[in-house]
UniProtKB/TrEMBL annotation:
<feature type="transmembrane region" description="Helical">
    <location>
        <begin position="168"/>
        <end position="188"/>
    </location>
</feature>
<feature type="transmembrane region" description="Helical">
    <location>
        <begin position="41"/>
        <end position="62"/>
    </location>
</feature>
<feature type="transmembrane region" description="Helical">
    <location>
        <begin position="74"/>
        <end position="92"/>
    </location>
</feature>
<dbReference type="InterPro" id="IPR011701">
    <property type="entry name" value="MFS"/>
</dbReference>
<dbReference type="InterPro" id="IPR020846">
    <property type="entry name" value="MFS_dom"/>
</dbReference>
<dbReference type="InterPro" id="IPR036259">
    <property type="entry name" value="MFS_trans_sf"/>
</dbReference>
<feature type="transmembrane region" description="Helical">
    <location>
        <begin position="361"/>
        <end position="390"/>
    </location>
</feature>
<dbReference type="InterPro" id="IPR052528">
    <property type="entry name" value="Sugar_transport-like"/>
</dbReference>
<feature type="transmembrane region" description="Helical">
    <location>
        <begin position="283"/>
        <end position="304"/>
    </location>
</feature>
<feature type="transmembrane region" description="Helical">
    <location>
        <begin position="98"/>
        <end position="122"/>
    </location>
</feature>
<feature type="domain" description="Major facilitator superfamily (MFS) profile">
    <location>
        <begin position="9"/>
        <end position="402"/>
    </location>
</feature>
<keyword id="KW-0812">Transmembrane</keyword>
<dbReference type="Pfam" id="PF07690">
    <property type="entry name" value="MFS_1"/>
</dbReference>
<feature type="transmembrane region" description="Helical">
    <location>
        <begin position="134"/>
        <end position="156"/>
    </location>
</feature>
<protein>
    <submittedName>
        <fullName>MFS transporter</fullName>
    </submittedName>
</protein>
<keyword id="KW-1133">Transmembrane helix</keyword>
<feature type="transmembrane region" description="Helical">
    <location>
        <begin position="221"/>
        <end position="242"/>
    </location>
</feature>
Length: 407
């Protein structure tokens, strides 16, 4: 009998994900505060938020093709470098223009590490194990956010309320990002699952983006995913502004996002049980609906409360909304991976991420325009409604397939 293969590399991948993800959202929150410090308003915040997704949107499919050809390791190394260096640039940046450039580069680093991390799972595990493995990987994402946001909140909040220490917090996150390197080296020790394929070989089995989008179930899966990521971006970018307008300090704003993250971790730990009991698609439809309702209710609460009472009310809302945000991403990863051809999984996962980035460019850009002449609460309402529509789209697809099947 052959020895059972070791999956210790997967633990290293999860820890690598924890370290990288501890930097992404935390640094983006810090960039929002730095933009405010440099005189940028709601419109500029929206443009900076959108810039994060521009390079991933343009390059996502090309990245997926490279991964499908077997160059996962090289892409992961590039993504790690583009995680560390842009944070250093953001920490040093004296103006909004350089912050914008750093934000764009950091977004590219995130999609490089994200595509490769996700692609390693269907490359190395059986289909029936994908849901659990994607759940574990996204728990790593949430744990990283749980580490990063409170840390930067504590460091930035150690300054005066009028002048948070955002640059010191950025340098701290840069140092933390360097810790990803040894875990990447460990991940690279995984068993090799294939050889490098030439462009001609890859082209022979490659499906076009339109053919991939034509696969039954692909559109509602991508729409559910992109709606969630856009909503998370809006909350990350605009909760600091809500805090500024209603007397909630930076450390409490980061704590709100942390509450949402903890809720996501808890629900992801039970994702396998929920999916087995109710089916992937019913759980996904419910998740999008819960998340959408929580986003819509943010401006409702700001009308009724201010200061610490608003913080308490938002904390409860974040705990509920975190359930929806937490389940949507691993469920859509599982969905698109199981309906994709093995030779195109990297491209499929990249197209899913490209959809995410499209929403992260378009929605914050629209939010920037809307926030220029309407109350900021309108931005939350429009984003929440999109999530509610995504929940309805998933449920409609499920019913058309007849019943509560997982696909």
């Amino acid at each position: 009998m052959s020895p059972r293969p070791s999956h210790s590399w997967f633990l290293a991948l999860v820890v690598f994900t924890v370290v990288c993800q501890s930097t992404y959202n935390a640094v983006r929150v810090l960039i929002s505060y730095r933009v405010i410090e440099l005189g940028g308003g709601a419109g500029v915040l929206g443009l900076v938020a959108a810039s994060y997704s521009l390079m991933p949107l343009l390059l996502a499919i090309a990245i997926g093709r490279v991964v499908d050809r077997g160059y996962t390791s090289a892409v992961m190394w590039a993504g790690t470098a583009l995680t560390i260096l842009p944070i250093a640039l953001a920490a040093w940046s004296p103006n909004i223009g350089l912050l914008l450039l750093a934000n764009m580069a950091l977004g590219l680093g995130q999609i490089l590490t994200t595509v490769t991390g996700q692609a390693l799972i269907p490359q190395n595990f059986a289909a029936e194990d994908l849901g659990r493995r994607f759940g574990n990987l996204t728990i790593g994402v949430s744990v990283g956010q749980l580490i990063g946001l409170p840390l930067v909140g504590f460091i930035a909040g150690s300054g005066s309320e009028a002048s948070p220490r955002t640059q010191l917090a950025m340098w701290t996150m840069c140092a933390l990002a360097v810790l990803a390197v040894p875990f990447l080296l460990w991940t690279m020790r995984r068993p090799r699952t294939g050889v490098h394929r030439s462009r001609a070989e890859a082209r022979a089995t490659a499906q076009s983006p339109w053919a991939i989008l034509g696969i039954r179930g692909m559109k509602p899966a991508i729409f559910a995913s992109m709606s969630t990521l856009a909503a998370v971006d809006i909350m990350t970018a605009y909760l600091p502004l809500v805090g500024e307008n209603h007397g909630i300090a930076v450390q409490y704003v980061t704590l709100l996002i942390t509450v949402r993250t903890i809720s996501s971790i808890v629900c992801r730990a039970f994702m396998g049980v929920l999916a087995a009991r109710f089916g992937n698609l019913p759980v996904l439809a419910a998740s999008s609906t819960i998340a959408g309702a929580s986003v819509v209710l943010v401006p409702v609460l700001t009308l009724a409360f201010s200061g610490m009472p608003l913080f308490a009310a938002l904390a409860v809302l974040m705990a509920i909304g975190g359930i929806g945000f937490g389940l949507t991403q691993p469920l859509t990863m599982t969905w698109v991976s199981t309906i994709a051809h093995p030779d195109n999984r990297g491209a499929v996962l990249s197209i899913r991420l490209a959809g995410n980035r499209l929403s992260q460019v378009v929605i914050p850009s629209l939010a920037s325009a809307v926030a220029g002449f309407t109350p900021v609460g309108v931005v939350f309402v429009l984003t929440g409604v999109m999530l509610l529509i995504a929940g309805g789209s998933t449920e409609l697809h499920r019913r058309r397939r007849g019943g509560s099947a997982s696909r």
